[in-house]
Task: structure prediction
Amino acid sequence: MMNTLLQDVRYAVRTLARSPGFTLVAVLTLALGIGANTAIFSAVNAVLLKPLPYPGSDRLVQVMSTGFRGVRFGVSFPDLHDLRALSQDFTGVAATTTQRYNLTGAGDPREVQAAAVTADLFDVLHVRPEIGHAFTAADDRAPLALLSHGLWVTNFGRDPGILGRSVSLDGRSFTVVGVMPAGFQFPNEDVQVWTPIGEFLSQNTQAETNRGMHFLNGVARLAPGVTLDRAVGDVKVLGARLSASDSGSSGGRQRIVAGQASPGAGPPGPSSGRSILDTGFDVTLLRDAAIGDVSRRLLILAGAVALVLLIACANAANLLLARATARRREMAVRRALGAGRGRLVRQLLTESTLLALAASVVGVVLSTWGLHALLAVWPHALPRTTEITLDARVLSFTLGLAVLTGVAFGILPAWRAAGPGIEQTLREDAPGATGGRRRLQSTLVVGEVTLALVLLVGAGLLVRSFIRLSNVDPGFSTRDVLAARIRLTPARYPEGAQQSLFFESMLATLQAHPGVQSASLAGTLPLSGNMFMIAFDPRTVRPDYPEPIMVLRSSVISPDYFMTFRIPIRRGRGFTAQDRAGAPPVAVINRATADQLWPGQDPIGRQLTIGGPRQRVGAITIVGLIDNLRSASLDATPQPEIYQPASQQSGMREMWVSLRAGNGRPLQLVGAIRDAVHQADPQQSIGEVVSLEQLIGRQTAARRFNTTLLTIFALLAVGLALVGIYGVTAYAVTQRTRELGIRMALGARGADVGRLLMRESLRRVAVGVVLGLLAAVGVTRALSAMLFEVAPRDALTFAGTALLLVAVALAATWLPARRATKVDPMVALRYE
Result:
């Protein structure tokens, strides 16, 4: 058996080597399909199939609070103690909260992302430091630090004596007790330092006892034998019991909640009990929480590349069918010499499988280049991108796909090539066999057109959707604006007056810079995905308000903010230098806030009473009205917003400074920001520096990633379909040379012959277009969640893509049809 297989392989290699043109075209055609599938599967493997990089990660869950309208946010420290009591469900419940530190004493001052963690976090994750040790319960209040492997390498040069060394975080000394393994990224990839949670609590005295402050992300490990459904049920019972107990002891529904919105966390509150947003707890697998809603997008892309591979297989099958004509005598002779049909089919399948294996090698190279390019352009379009590699599972998938592909596109051509009778095949021509082969080729072309149109419609919908999104007016100018986040070191700037002095000095320096048209400060930045939220009972303002909760997006700003972002004041005024500490509190709101609180009325001069950790509870006078802004994201409905003067707040520890460039080159002002900060304080670090256009790029990265890939796959499918249509038409011209010659000898003009071939080709295309449109109607429903202001059955997209494909088909048919018009009847008739 093995000897026979080796003989088949050697013969297949010699046969393919004698037809280098055919071999090259077939390999490249299949390589495109296999390479695209390899690239997408590597992403699916890393994101959806691989377990998280923690032992027993399938038992890890995320525990969150649930609130009004199903909003999910963090848990409080008292909640954490109650969850730990569920020992029948969890072997451990840990928690983290992220914060930023200014790192000094290890090169230039820099800002680092840190996670304050409970001592049992690493036990729950089953992870140990690469060197040193993790925290213990006794370390809870100690100023200790664990470093990420990357920070240890870049800032400390892999110093083996790092253990016991002190690092300065916010001017305070922390002792390094360990370095985490390379690749450890918890709770996210930006965290570079881990500290004990007690250190965080010592700086936030209310957090340890305040059940309304939801600042922790909970992570737990399910106990042996406990199912996810059981844990979900138990934590829901716990949440209901806590809410009932709290509402019975205090008027919880009238309390005010304020806090910083961030991924995975919700608005904490200043109240001592559970907040008005709380309704209970929820448990989800940590893996599902890590990947979010990306699974649908990846599966759609995987389906798209599968269609591309099917089209490539159809093209390869057509190539083999055409080649079978040239080899029909060879097959007949081998049959006459005693070779059975099964033996011939096996030989031909060996050839097609070798083609597919060669294509898989080329495809792996193409997928490697493609992945590197995609991840370089969109490094954050997918979660877990650092784990996207061509590992053993991906290569095994590619090998299996190659073998399956070789059989799939080779079986029908092999069966037909080995099938005709000996006498019939040895004749000069075999009309019956040719006619059957032509019908099979036509069927394959119809399939190619159908699949290509489905992809083209999907890509068209996403392209139209992205164009709509790109044309959205956010309500503020995003061009020529550069922003930088500055977080003051608490030890150096403990008082609000010192903080204000620093920012005023820095802002004055920037405003005097010749390249700066305007400069301003803000607590939060539009489109940054992070904004201060205030939830309050609106019935204190409007008794007939239909709901007990209203959430405002809030920011504190300097007077020039609206000028910097070119946000017009529609009524009233903006802020001035007179709106300072000690003056009556004022605010500017957007139309959404005005419409909800004072529908049909002029909000100017109205008063609103809210409170939060950054401001006194008291009446705030509305002095200005702006249009609705898309501050959260371009595709989100504008929400109620309120802006207050930074000078009337008690503290300004972290602010964004925004500059409008006068020369249209905002990135050239990075040095100006650095100089202004260091002029105010040489020890002060600078956080993130980003232009507004870069923020928009981040906002739309996932959409651009999906749209670009699906468009590439659609164009690839159209290109393959074009090659298939051209190939079948050219083959028909070759096989029908005698017939065409006879037609022309009997008086047919060249134009008549051309129209005949065009009509036959377009008939196949028309059938494929109709089938493709019907298939697209059902398939595009899966794209609904990825579309923006475009319907899944958008008639313009369906019609436009169908016409485009018909135009491509016309171009593919015209060239061989034009060649057929030049057939010399005398030359054609010599074949008789």
About this structure: The chain has 24 helices and 23 strands.
